[in-house]
Amino acid sequence: MNREQWDERYRTDELIWKAEPNRFLVAELDGIAPGRALDVACGEGRNALWLAAKGWRVTGVDFSSAALAKGRRIASEQGLEVEYVEADVVEWPPPLGQFDAVVLMYLHLPAPERRQVLSHAKAALAPGGLLLVVGHDLSNLTQGTGGPQDATVLYRPEDLVTDLSGLRIEKAERVTRTVETEAGPRTAIDALVRAVRPL
To answer: How many domains does the chain have?
Structure first.
């Protein structure tokens, strides 16, 4: 989907995604001493807001002005501070070496664009900084439920590991979650990679 299509989708008072943060983000970052965080393709900001509530200084980047407006409104209502940047994450170069955590949650792009975003994400990490990438796994297309139905924008943990050369890989695995559908509970399969920039 392009910028205009996302803006149209977000142009509603209702949240497109849940208000709660992503479960894998919570599992991987809860308890880590807060620093400066970057939420890439942050959408309405649910993960950025959770990080801010935990004491992180957060920058959220997305190309949808409608999503960012909603994120700013929610942050204001909750008394939280998040710096929102309107930019295309494929093209936007973040500040180099400034972030203690960078998160990319369910950003699905063709491989060349994905590698560009991940290259920016790696460059944004401070020494010792953590990068968390979570998205629909390629196997979800045939064995899971939901998510993009286009294999060219899906990936496997091993694809991300290759893309993240130069970082220390702490975790690279397929993870599952239960999704409620009209037909009842179903299982979705995600790829999760946690990596750290060496000191």
So the answer is: 1
Distance separating alpha carbons of residues 78 and 179, to the nearest angstrom: 28
61: phi > 0 → left, psi -120 to 50 → alpha, else beta; which? Answer: beta
- pLDDT digits (tens), the chain, 199 positions: 544 554 455 455 555 546 689 999 999 999 999 999 999 999 999 999 999 999 999 999 999 998 899 899 999 999 999 999 999 999 999 999 999 999 999 999 999 999 999 999 999 999 999 999 999 999 999 999 999 999 999 999 999 999 999 999 999 999 999 988 888 899 999 999 999 999 9
Instruction: Tell me which residue range forms the domain holding 105.
Output: 3-196
Answer yes or no: are the C-beta atoms of 199 and 172 closer than 8 Å: no
CATH number of the domain enclosing 80: 3.40.50.150
Query: Which residue blocks in the chain are alpha helix, DSSP H?
Result: 3-10, 23-29, 46-53, 65-78, 111-124, 140-143, 157-163
C-alpha to C-alpha distance for 39 and 193, rounded to whole angstroms: 15
What region, left, alpha or beta, does residue 46 occupy, with left being phi > 0 and alpha being psi -120 to 50 degrees? alpha
> What's this model's pTM, rounded to 2 decimal places?
0.90
